[in-house]
Structure formats: structure tokens, C-alpha cells
Specification:
The protein is of the alpha/beta class. Helices cover 39% and strands 19% of the residues. It has a single domain (3-118), classed as 3-Layer(aba) Sandwich (Rossmann fold), CATH 3.40.50. The protein contains five helices and five strands.
């Protein structure tokens, strides 16, 4: 199974999500900045191991919607889950094909959503940078 790239500017949120996923048998990598995450995605190691991005919506420097637009320009089929506590955050992602989870997110919901998104499908079993 591919790994999950967790992106959030709050290290404690990252640690909790990584622990939850680990308990569900899902490996993950962490990034505290969107630009750091993009560099990892574009690396040879990232292309080989990452099958899903889980990102926060509100982040400094680059918000979640801008981050997803950057992902889509290079990895149009890479699954992305956005976690947000804002009720209208989904409006910023029109046409970007993301899944949403509302904060607070139940651990079982996070694990199930991640597992489902990592399930190989013919159009997302791998992603290729353009």
C-alpha cells in the first residue's frame, strides 16, 4: 500500500494523524509547509511511495486550495483529502476533485476515508508528473 503525505502547519495535528493512521496500519510522511510537501511529491522517492495527500485547509504561505491547485498541475489523478473546520471551505476547491473531512474528525472516519482513497483504481494506481 502506498503512503500518505500528511500536510499541516500544526505539528501536534500531524503527530495525532500519523499516530491514528499508524494504528490503522497506514504509513505516512509529514510536511509542515505546502512547498515542502510539493518538493517531496516531485522527488523520485515521493513519486514512488506517496499515494494520497491529506492536507489542512488553513495554512500560512499557501492555503490548502492553492496547494491542491499546485498538486493538480503536476499530479492530476493523485487523491487528496482536505480537512477543515470551516463550513464553507469546500467552495474554494470547486473542480479540484478532493474529498472533505470536517474537523473534528472521528479517528475511524479518517482511517476509513484514507483506506478508501488508497484503494488501487485504474485511474489512480499511480501518478506521473507532467
Amino acid at each position: 500500500m502506498k503512503q500518505v503525505l500528511l500536510v499541516d502547519d500544526d505539528p501536534s495535528q500531524l503527530a495525532v494523524r500519523q499516530l491514528l493512521l499508524s494504528r490503522g496500519g497506514i504509513e505516512s510522511q509529514l510536511a509542515t509547509e505546502a512547498r515542502q510537501a510539493l518538493a517531496l511529491l516531485k522527488s523520485d522517492a515521493g513519486r514512488a511511495t506517496i499515494g494520497l495527500v491529506v492536507t489542512d485547509h488553513l495554512m500560512p504561505e499557501m492555503n490548502g486550495a492553492d496547494f491542491v491547485r499546485e498538486i493538480r498541475s503536476s499530479f492530476p489523478k493523485l487523491p487528496v483529502i482536505v480537512i477543515s473546520g470551516l463550513p464553507d471551505a469546500h467552495n474554494a476547491y470547486d473542480g479540484l476533485e478532493v474529498l472533505f473531512l470536517a474537523k473534528p474528525c472521528e479517528p475511524e472516519d479518517l482511517i476509513a476515508t484514507v483506506r478508501n482513497a488508497l484503494t488501487p483504481a485504474s485511474d489512480r494506481s499511480s501518478f506521473v508528473a507532467s
